Structures are given as structure tokens and as C-alpha cells.
Amino acid sequence: MVWFVQILGIGLMFALSPLFWGITQTTKARLQRRRGPSLWQPYWVIAKNWQKDTTVPEFSSLIFRLAPSITMAALVAILISIPVAGQVPASWPRNLLTVFFLLALERFWTGLAGLDAAGTFGGLGASRVTTLGTGIEPALLAALGIVWGVSGHATIRPLAPLLHASPARLFPWVLASVSLALVLLAEWGRLPVDNPDTHLELTMIHEATLLEYDGRFLALAEWAMALKVTALATLGWVLLGPNCRSLWANLALRLGEVGLTAIAIGVVESRFTKVRFFRIPMYLAAAAGIGVLAFYLVAGGFSG
């Protein structure tokens, strides 16, 4: 039963990741008093691109063609390593350090593809993506450092039943959750770090690496962007969120939590504007600092 529920949960998260993207876009539009796109618009966009003919830049190499598949495979591997239902078989791979390596692999190939296209915008996007990665990765490591503080190892599993914890002991979890939320916005390229709704060369970051793609390559890249935030949000909720005894209840809870995360991102995007690129390191430093504080409190036995 554990195998079946875990595989089912992975399949649902993979299939519903564009829907969570649509929830964010719809929430943002409604808060701005616009009708906005349909919740299913991301599926229609991906399907439309999948049916188009695929072209590649004249001077690109095999790297440009392989990058969308490799990034998608890395994100799927991250999702597989997360115990979506709260429990996994003993032999299931679930090491947190693997998540960091796979995220680095995804970012490396995204930047490499931008450079391989031999275009101005691709090089610009690759430079910015890798620059932000040097700040995002330490911030993410700090945000999830509470795992080492509590359990002493890097195994991905629910840390504690938060619903039964005292208010004082919840404080480090709150700090870790805030740190992870800040990292999540930066990792997905949302406001205030990046604006995915614009293609101005002075502001775009992640979108710049996709400008040379079309057809099935673009469809894979767009699905991968949606899958990234779904996987990271699921990871955060599994580690820091409440956990039930029932596998099916955990699975339903995770789906609802990721949906709430998508709504929250839409609310944040409707309230904030994009910060200047050279101020983003301060943003990531704040996220890392909050995560380090949470780890320090847990490692020091904070109890209020």
C-alpha cells in the first residue's frame, strides 16, 4: 500500500503542477480586478507548444536540445525523493543533499542552454540565473538546516507533529518556513525577484533562457518551471508541515497545501513590485539569515 500511495502521489503532483501555476496566475489576476486566464490555461499552452514544429538556433549544439529533457528529469528525480504521503518504504531514496545536487544540475543546464543558443538574451539570462543560484543555494541550505538540527541527518521525513508542539517550540519552525518561502519565490522566478509576465531585457531572468525555445522543447521547459515550485513546496510541507497517520489523508493534505502555496504566491505577487537586480542579494541574504537563526535556535535547544 505504501508503494502504491507514494507512486500515486508523485504522479498527481507531476500532473497537477501546471494547475498550481494556473491557480497562481488566476489569484493574481482576481486580486488586480482582472478576469485573468483560466485555471487550465497552462495545460492549453503546453499542449499548443507540443503540437508545434520544433526549430533550433543555427549555431546551437546538442546541449541546447538535451537541456529541457535533462532539467525535467532532474526535477522529476527531486519529486520522487520526497515522501509525498508522509511514509515511504525503507529502501526509498530520500536524501536531502540529493535535492541540492539535482537543483544545481537543473540550474547548470538551464544556464548552459542559454549560452549555447549564441543569442544576446540567452547569455544575459544564463548570467543572471547562475548569479542568483550562488545566493539561492546557500539560502535554501540555511532554510532546511533545521533538518540537521532536529534529526542529525539529511533524511527527508516529517520533523515533528507541529499540531502538538508548544507555541515556543514552534518559533524555529516559523522562521524556517519564512526562509523557505522567500527562497521559493526566488527559485521559481516570481515577484519580487523576477516578473514572469514581462519580456523586457532589463528585467527578465528566467524567461531570457527560454526565448530561443519553441515547440516541444518549450513545452518541456514550461512544465519544468511549474514542476520546480511544486516539488519545492511539497518538500517544505513534508518537512515543516503537519503530518497525519493515514497515507491517504497525508496525500490529500499535501495537495491542499501546495494549492494554498500557489494562492499565497499569487497574493504576494499582487502586493509587491520587482526589486532591482542588485538588491536581490540582500533579499537572499535575509532568507539565509532567517534560516540560520532557525537552525541556531533548534541546535541550541530553544524552548521559549
Give an account of the 3D structure.
It is built from 10 helices and no strands. The radius of gyration is 19 Å and the shape is globular. 67% of the residues lie in helices and 0% in strands. By secondary structure, it is an all-alpha fold. The chain has one domain. The mean pLDDT is 84.
Which properties best describe this structure?
304 residues
Domain count, please report it.
1
Kindly estimate the percentage of residues that lie in beta strands according to DSSP.
Answer: under 5%
Shape: globular
Decide which structural class fits the backbone: mainly alpha
Summarize the biggest pleated sheet: none
Low-confidence segments, ≥5 residues, pLDDT <50? Answer: none
Helix content estimate: 55-70%
Structural Rg: 19 Å
Task: Write the element-wise H/E pattern from the N-terminal end onward.
Answer: HHHHHHHHHH
In DSSP terms (H or I, runs of 4 or more residues), the helix count works out at 10
Distance between the termini: 40 Å
Mean pLDDT: 84
Number of strands: 0
